[in-house]
Structure formats: structure tokens, C-alpha cells
Backbone:
């Protein structure tokens, strides 16, 4: 079964509202999680690194005030898309590994969350 | 800045044929991953390659890594329709779990 779970799987929201996506590691603690965004027929783009107990590290070009990341516990990271607009509609995927310090350690991906902003 | 390029972007092939997908990356890395993605779904891990010359095989898929050339290949042998999907390579970057994805190769296998 899944070891990294995302919720919700699908969400439709109105323009201008905020929406929160959760990423949970189910049977291990993850000090680091990663958030990706994937537009239709495109690759996964790394948005940010979520660090437990500290601020997230954002990739170049990703607005930190728009995509709020909170990693309040060792098993949960949340991504909040604030003031969402139709161009934010995308597939959002998180990932985590049991030991982020070991190269080659299995990286688990969540099931993904489809966001549609209308 | 790490860049990962896949080639080709789209591939349509007949069942029973062989083909290779290429993944080039721009800077030194200690790990390379191959994933499969079906439409509307998340990623399925296929291979993790950690050392120069590493070769791994699973069914009709075989992956290899040449760290000196910064090149990985995913070889498909005697393709079957069930292998139709998008295949991504991804390269490790910075911390052990941070990876950067290639553009993906959309593979369509026809009877």
C-alpha cells in the first residue's frame, strides 16, 4: 500500500480562494519532503523542499508567498495555494524518503492532487 | 544548475520492437532514477542506478548508467502494449532525496 499519502485527490476551487493539500508519510518519519507541480503533458517541476521545523526552501521562480508550505510534524507537510487562479490548475505531487541522507534510498511519491481553479 | 534532457519526447512503436530512451544530465550526480507514469496517475518507481556501469533489468525494461558520459538509457525489448506510458528519468541533486526530472518520454505501443 501507499507509504506517502496525499489529500485531497481532486479539488475544484473558485478563483481567489485558497486551497490546502496535505502530504503524509504513513509509516515513517520524514524530516524532508518535496513538492512538485506537473502541468498536462509536461514533466514534474520541483517547487520546494519542505523541512520539518523550519522554513521551506523554494526553487527559483516559485513564489513563496503564493505557495505556502508548512511541515509542522515529521509525518505531515502541507501546501497551501493562496489566492488561486486558473493558471495554478495543475497536478501537485509530494515525495519523501525514509532516510533523506542516503543516496539511492527509495523515494516514495504521493498519489498526487489534481487542482482545478475555476 | 542541473539540467536533465530526455530523448525522444514521444515515441510510437509497434509491438515486438526494441527501442532505447536516452537521458542526459549536465552535472555530476550520484544517483539516477527511472519512473513510469500512467495517465492521471502518480509515479511508479522502476529503477535506481547508483554507480558507473550499473545495469538493472526488470522484465522487458533494462536501464544502464554511464556517469562519465552523464548518460542513462532505458531499453525496451520486444515491446508490448502494456508498456504504453510516460517514462521519466530523474537525477539526484543536492540532498539525497532531491531529484530533478527529465522532460519525459511518452511511449505509445501499437499492435
Residues:
Amino acid at each position: 500500500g501507499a507509504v506517502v499519502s496525499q489529500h485531497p485527490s481532486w479539488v475544484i476551487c473558485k478563483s481567489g480562494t485558497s486551497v490546502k493539500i496535505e502530504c503524509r508519510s504513513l509509516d515513517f518519519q520524514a524530516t524532508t519532503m518535496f513538492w512538485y507541480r506537473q502541468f498536462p503533458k509536461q514533466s514534474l517541476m520541483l517547487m520546494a523542499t519542505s523541512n520539518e521545523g523550519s522554513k521551506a526552501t523554494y526553487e527559483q521562480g516559485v513564489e513563496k508567498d503564493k505557495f505556502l508550505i508548512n511541515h509542522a510534524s515529521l509525518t505531515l507537510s502541507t501546501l497551501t495555494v493562496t489566492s488561486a487562479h486558473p493558471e495554478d490548475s495543475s497536478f501537485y505531487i509530494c515525495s519523501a524518503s525514509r532516510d533523506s541522507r542516503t543516496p539511492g534510498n527509495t523515494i516514495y511519491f504521493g498519489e498526487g492532487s489534481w487542482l482545478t481553479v475555476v | 544548475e542541473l539540467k536533465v534532457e530526455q530523448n525522444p519526447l514521444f515515441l510510437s512503436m509497434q509491438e515486438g520492437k526494441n527501442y532505447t530512451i536516452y537521458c542526459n544530465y549536465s552535472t555530476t550526480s550520484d544517483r539516477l532514477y527511472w519512473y513510469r507514469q500512467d495517465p492521471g496517475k502518480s509515479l511508479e518507481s522502476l529503477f535506481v542506478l547508483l554507480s558507473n556501469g550499473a545495469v538493472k533489468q526488470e522484465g522487458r525494461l533494462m536501464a544502464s548508467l554511464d556517469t562519465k558520459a552523464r548518460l542513462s538509457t532505458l531499453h525496451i525489448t520486444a515491446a508490448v502494449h502494456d508498456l504504453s506510458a510516460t517514462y521519466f528519468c530523474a537525477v539526484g541533486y543536492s540532498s539525497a532525496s532531491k531529484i530533478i526530472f527529465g522532460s519525459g518520454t511518452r511511449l505509445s505501443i501499437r499492435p
About this structure: The first strand of chain B starts at residue 4 and ends at 7. Chain B has a mean pLDDT of 93.
